[in-house]
Specification:
The complex is a heterodimer.
Chain A lengths: L1 H14 L18 H10 L5 H9 L12 H12 L3 H19 L6 H17 L10 H23 L25 H20 L2 H11 L5 H8 L3 H26 L5
Helix pairs in contact in A: 4-5, 5-6, 5-7, 6-7, 8-11, 9-11, 10-11
Chain B lengths: L1 H8 L5 H13 L1 H17 L7 H11 L10 H4 L3
Helix pairs in contact in B: 1-3, 2-3
The chains are: A mainly alpha, B mainly alpha.
């Protein structure tokens, strides 16, 4: 559905460049003008018409795809800039896993990933005034993370001597080192068990809760879009997502105690 | 309160309610636990690596020694 939306969205941007639907309005009436709708319908492949109409009526053109976390992130950044350091702590909790995942594409050792992630957050906090909101906060943070990872790798390269394989004295052949899995057992266990727990609880949830939380967390839809998809009021969506999170949290909470004080 | 935390995570909380929820998150450890668990749930659904709260706590502890530097741009630094 997201792919189809992107196709329709790109077509609309192509045909209506003057229309800039990138700012989400909670209760606004940001939709394409009727004549634009008609023009689109005449130009877009017929197979898209149903989907296009759905998106037009569901106000997806308010730029939902670009704002999944923008409002809350920007609010927390604004508060951090005003001197409330604790709000940056909330950003750390919010982005730590995604940032670590980005960094893990460059740095393999769990301890090094942790160090570089920490360094990236410290740089971001120290330089928070330089974030002007030109991009999403997450994008800015991940750029800092990638740069920190690349700097780390460059420093590592300058420290490590060129690789020279050891020679087996019996066969006089080079010894090929075994590939080491750098994932720590604790981290793998935690990831696996938490993932399994979440999946297990999700499966047992009433369908309306499971659908609501999936549309939010996996598909990134706004509450209003979910309300349109599920044909229910926004308040019901809000309640369903909360109840799904609470159900999962109740099961996760005691399991997390097992991992407390362990490295991830 | 928990439902408001959930909504704030999704950028769906009414503006007039944000100040009070941020105050709650700042002051109440149980609210911060909810903040952590709700984010963990979403990250787990997206298949991101599990990290316990010890990791974020270690970062937060480090951050206490760091000061905001208005002249510092972490992205400019990387160009040097």
């Amino acid at each position: 559905m997201i792919k189809l939306f992107n196709q329709v969205y790109n077509l609309c941007i192509l045909y209506f460049p003057e229309y800039k639907p990138m700012t989400r309005l909670k209760s606004g009436v940001h939709s394409l003008p009727k004549q634009a709708n008609m023009m689109c319908l005449s130009r877009i492949d017929l197979s898209y018409i149903g989907t296009f109409n759905f998106f037009i009526h569901s106000n997806v053109f308010r730029g939902r795809m670009d704002s999944s976390e923008t409002d809350t992130d920007l609010d927390l950044v604004r508060r951090t800039k005003l001197g409330d350091r604790h709000t940056f702590d909330m950003l750390v909790v919010r982005h730590q896993r995604m940032l670590a995942q980005v960094i893990s594409r460059y740095v393999k050792s769990p301890q090094q990933i942790e160090d570089v992630t920490q360094e990236a957050f410290i740089k971001a906090y120290r330089g928070i005034m330089s974030f002007r909101g030109d991009s999403k906060f997450s994008t800015w943070l991940y750029r800092i993370g990638v740069n920190a990872a690349l700097s780390f790798l460059a420093a590592e390269r300058s420290r490590i001597p060129l690789y020279e394989p050891s020679i087996n004295p019996n066969t006089n052949e080079p010894i090929i080192p075994q590939i080491v899995d750098n994932e720590s057992p604790e981290r793998l266990l935690a990831t696996q068990q938490i993932g399994e727990t979440v999946s297990s609880v999700l499966e047992k949830l009433p369908e309306e809760l499971r659908t609501a939380i999936t549309l939010r967390e996996i598909d990134g839809l706004s509450y209003e879009e979910i309300a349109n998809v599920m044909d229910c009021p926004i308040g019901t969506v809000r309640s369903r997502i909360f109840r799904a999170r609470e159900s999962i949290s109740k099961v996760l909470r005691p399991k997390l105690e097992l991992f407390r004080d362990k490295r991830w | 309160m928990k439902e408001k935390i959930s909504s704030y995570i999704d950028s769906e909380l009414a503006i007039e309610e944000i100040d009070s929820i941020v105050d709650t998150l700042r002051q109440e450890p149980t609210a911060r636990d909810d903040w952590f668990l709700y984010h963990l749930t979403g990250d787990a659904m997206r298949g991101q690596p599990a990290m316990d709260d010890g990791f974020s706590k270690s970062i937060i502890t480090k951050l206490k020694t760091v000061k905001i530097d208005p002249s510092y741009d972490p992205l400019d630094e990387s160009k040097i």
